Amino acid sequence: MLRYGRTLCGLGAGAALRGPTGRRGLLDGGRARGVSTSWSPVGAAFNVKPQGRRWDLLGERQGLFGVPELSTPEGFHVAQKEALRKTEWLVERACTTPPGPQTVLIFDELSDCLCRVADLADFVKIGHPEPAFREAAEEACRSIGTMVEKLNTNVELYQSLWKLLEDKKLMESLDAETRRVAELFMFDFEISGIHLDEEKRRRAVDLNVKILDLSSAFIMGANFPNKIQKHLLPEHIRHHFARDGSYVVIDGLHAEASDDLVREAAYKIFLYPNAGQLKCLEELLSSRDLLANLVGYPTFSHRALQGTIAQTPETVMQFLEKLSDKLSERAAKDFEMMRDMKMKLNPQNSELMPWDPPYYSGVIRAERYNIEPSLYCPFFSLGACMEGLNILFNKLLGITLYAEHPAKGEVWCDDVRKLAVVHESEGLLGYIYCDFFQRANKPHQDCHFTIQGGRLKEDGSYQLPVVVLMLNLPHSSRDSPTLLTPGMMENLFHEMGHAMHSMLGRTRYQHVTGTRCPTDFAEVPSILMEYFSNDYRVVSQFARHYQTGQPLPKAMVSRLCESKKVCAAAEMQLQAWQLRFSHLVGYGAKYYSYLMSRAVASMVWKECFLQDPFNRAAGERYRREMLAHGGGKEPMLMVQGMLQKCPSIDDLVGALVSDLNLDFETFFMDSK
Ligand SMILES: [Zn+2]
Q1: 95: left (phi over 0), alpha (psi -120 to 50) or beta
Q2: Are 108 and 510 in contact (CB under 8 A)?
Q3: Is 144 helix (H, G, I), strand (E, B) or coil?
């Protein structure tokens, strides 16, 4: 009945495969001339180093995220004990309350009570710089996890929900959101086989345990470096890799290396088939299949896709095959272009090999569009980008971001900023903690974490959503604020899209708060923000040189946008290497989600915002039809509400493909 830990991290296709499109050169003109531009409050909060925070030391130390118990690592133990105690009381209440809307409320409170500790701990265990906090959080996750397992197999609890779902008349009397949440709770229950007879139930529990173990083994194997004795590698390329005694360690594809042989060696060694890993994957797939069959689905993907935009594996296959079909001609041209480039640079060895495309497409992009990131960085100071987001949210949604001083002990690192998200008439909507800067041992992934979900409390007040955005931006230097590459700027907009989904998903139940929605819908709000970040009318509102205040020239934005279409068809068709593809676990049967979300976002952009990216009416509709519901409404109904039509597979495929069309204005401008 319960899930937690649904963190949204960059889905491979965007984050892992895109990579930087060029070298990151040194910043030109970085002589200390100081900052000559003045920033708005939110801009200043990110561009100007906080000074005089000494006064913090005087105040009383509060807990992490303002949770009083969490001022020390030991506090996790207190919080988790309290949560478990309340859980028992709520279970008792659920089992003794007659079926009705109250049942769903109690279940949601139960879920909230456990998630509030588990979600927070889920972040702290990887995000906190102090090992003692990380370990305490890990322990809290484990103990809540055990409790969740126990609840998922609690027959009495299951029956209290079952009695509600069985009573058709009663169900019909509930509003749509409550009905959906009741069904979602049941859906999570059933994977433990709780509705089956004793023997089958035991098998389901065993399979669940086995799947968990296989999943973590597979993820480990997917990231595990391969070693090779150094004498087996040509001497002149050895220095490209890490060394371990007489071995060379290959920990990735080195896809951007300019030496063909380095890429070839990395590709062949890193992807060398590993029998153990293959066996692990095969066992994982068959266990999933067995479990799905056992709980009543024809395949694992049928179960995984229930409630998504796509709904069935057949629709997904149709979508992917049609897309691949539509892309094949363009992809062939892309490969031809890469081959030509390789021929030009390397006439003796010009056949295009599997380890070549990312590198040569990068070369073509750089040669054709001159998009050296260091030319762009000075215009994308972090403060400027935050101002841009503030302007956009203000115009579209009437929302302002205010930088607040966190209390002492409230944040886990001094450079974390806290934003209050405030609506012009509704007031405070929630908080975003911005953990944006690199530090030792911080995971190298841009992520959105839900710390506390929004929900309507029994006393009528609204529990405010709290999230963390984690990025890996460089620190400011003595001479300049943090400067973002275009890719980092786009990622910042993407992650803020998730955060706004969390802030504006004003659901009654925390079980479906903000981003707690089907996977193929979850990336729609974030990818939509990428479209805004690539539009000159939006970019021109904020991109200005941090020293001179000079705006970013329009031609530079157009060139950047056009460069992204280079070899994009080939990239979209790229297949993953199954033994190294850890997303097979987190996105099991749902990796298509990224493309489907992009297709929907593309349609929303074109139909609702392309004409005027600051249109308030469109912004309000977007909030009302899509963001407000979190996961509390059938995703296709939300899409339909927004687009005022139900998109067909052809519409979705068409939207993705048309994004690759070259813009003739830029083309002519450049060929002049
Ligand atoms: Zn995302």
Answers
A1: alpha
A2: yes
A3: helix
Q: What is the pLDDT of residues 270-295, one digit of tens each?
A: 999 999 999 999 999 999 999 999 99
Tokens of 380: 């994308």
Q: How far is the CA of 470 from the centre of ligand 1 (A)?
A: 12
Which residues in the chain come in under a pLDDT of 70? 1-37, 50-58, 664-672
Q: What is the pLDDT of residue 313?
A: 97
CA of 12 to the centre of ligand 1 (A): 10
- pLDDT for residue 31: 31
DSSP assignment of 552-592, as one string?
PPHHHHHHHHHHTTTTHHHHHTPPP-GGG-THHHHTTT-TT
The values of phi and psi at residue 403, to 5°, are: -80, 125
Active site residue 571: no
Of 190, 410, 495, 523, catalytic: 495
- Looking at residue 203, what is its pLDDT? 94
Burial degree of 283 (CB within 10 A; 0-12, 13-18, 19+): middle
Q: Which residues surround ligand 1, an ion (CB under 5 A)?
A: 8, 526
pLDDT at residue 624 in the model: 97
Give the pLDDT score at 662: 83
| Whether 165 contacts 183, CB under 8 Å | yes
Q: How many CB atoms lie within 10 A of CB 246?
A: 9
CA of residue 495 to ligand 1 center, whole Å: 6
Say what the pLDDT of residue 61 is: 80
- Ligand 1 center from residue 499 Cα (angstroms): 10
Instruction: Compute, in angstroms, the gap from residue 587 CA to the centroid of ligand 1.
Output: 13
The residue whose two tokens read 């260091």 is: 374
